[in-house]
Predict the structure of AraC family transcriptional regulator.
Amino acid sequence: MAALLERVGIAPGLLQQRTARLTEAQFAALYRLVVAYADDEMPRLFSRPLRPGALKFTCLSLLDARNLAVALHRWSHVLHLLQDDFTLEVDPAQPICRVALIESPAARPCKPVALDLMLKLIHGVASWLIGRRIPLIRVDFSFERPAFAAEYQALYPGPVRFDQPCTAMHLEAGYLQMPVRRTKPELNEFLRRAPEDWLFVSFKDELLSQRLREHLARQLPRTLTAEDAAAALHVSTRTLHRRLGEEGTSFQRVKDELRRDIAVQKLTRTREPMSAIAAELGFDSTASFHRAFKGWTGDTPGVYRGRGAAPESGRR
């Protein structure tokens, strides 16, 4: 351990000083070294190791989830495959939902640091997936209050309680419906900086593409130009295009994805006429809506609705 500490510029003597502090970069660098040394992404904290690559392939399985609720549901299944110490349980109750780590009675009790790191990982990855730091109503831990309990306020955006029935975070249920907007190139950068981006979650500024999408949704059926949107978001048109490019998207792509997602929801969940859907999305005719939708999905709206319809009279 002394050799690993020295490699990241941490004096081993600091371990004996209760008031000693490290930078986030030092801690993250040390964590990466320990993961490599232990061959375990949760360094020997659980009964089975999470081999390097577990987080990458977990995140890959979450990227195409339509929203955070689906992503967390998938994650619960992946964790069940990878370890035996706990299950990830998501209670989507309104208006506050609970994301909990339920320890297995058949396994050895989880160490407090193991529960702490796993909950931090879930909060950090969930925040990253939707591109905004998720505020927490409160955080519960099943272990007793430690001497350094006050430090938790710097790690969790919400009040922290100890000696609770289970370890869990509580958040507004609306966050579960927020879409997953990350891409594989963004995942590579996220993993390269790990654990900084999930352990020390910041996301001080919401993604401009998300703000743009929400603004465009409020304006429908009116269709806006990039100049209109830039003025409403208080940035120049040039800045709008530049920042959208940095986020891996464009004005037209954000607009198309918004209208595509709304169209898919209406086609599969309602029986609204095509002409009404086209008008609500700002198209000047049903024909132009048909052309755009086929370009987005490869199918006409009618074919897509037929595939998504519930079975009738035994037919699929």
Remarks:
- The longest strand covers residues 96-103.
- The first helix runs from residue 2 to 7.
- The chain has 14 helices and five strands.
